[in-house]
Amino acid sequence: MSNSVAHALKAVLADSYALRLKTQNYHWNVEGPNFRALHVMFEEQYNELAAAIDEIAERIRALGERIEATPSAFSKKTNIKDGDHTLDESGMVKDLFESNVKIVETLKTALKAAEEVEDEFSVDMMIGRIGVHEKAAWMLRSSLPDAVRSKAAKAADY
What is the CA radius of gyration of the chain? Predict the structure, then answer.
């Protein structure tokens, strides 16, 4: 039971870690007319991710699995591409929007694994995380200029 769920949660953990790092990178490097609003939003998002990472890791441990928490181990498991600190503010927001959409896919895979073995605690955790990332995607998408927002939503099928 726990192995399939723990395996799926390890992918969620890796994606969450990568997204947190990317979001913090953009928090430090964002510039432009929306600097203050984006700087604050990015900080809120990476702080939320930090707390979530701990919860996810503790769930994996509760399921009896150990965690290899190294950058190289996470990079092998993540679906989130590295951030580009040279992007302009719209590029950063678009990238974070796409990454939040991507992590929802990983979360849905973990949700399915947990549902299959009736692991209600993990099911609940994944549903909560999906809600967090769908809200983040909405906020990020809403922060994009009209032309970019339309293209980003269409490309992400969101």
Answer: 16
Structural domain boundaries, residue 28 = 2-155
Q: What DSSP string describes 24-70?
A: HHHHHH--STTHHHHHHHHHHHHHHHHHHHHHHHHHHHHTT-----S
Return the sign of the alpha-carbon dihedral for residues 134, 135, 136, 142.
Answer: positive
Q: Nearest-5° angle of CA 67, CA 82, CA 150?
A: 120
Residue 6: both structure tokens together: 């723990």
Note the pLDDT tens digit of each residue in 80-123. 999 999 999 999 999 999 999 999 999 999 999 999 999 999 99
Give the CATH number for residue 36: 1.20.1260.10
pLDDT at 1: 46
In the three-class reduction of DSSP (H, G, I as helix; E, B as strand; rest coil), residue 87 is classed as: coil
Domain tally, the chain:
1
pTM summary value: 0.93
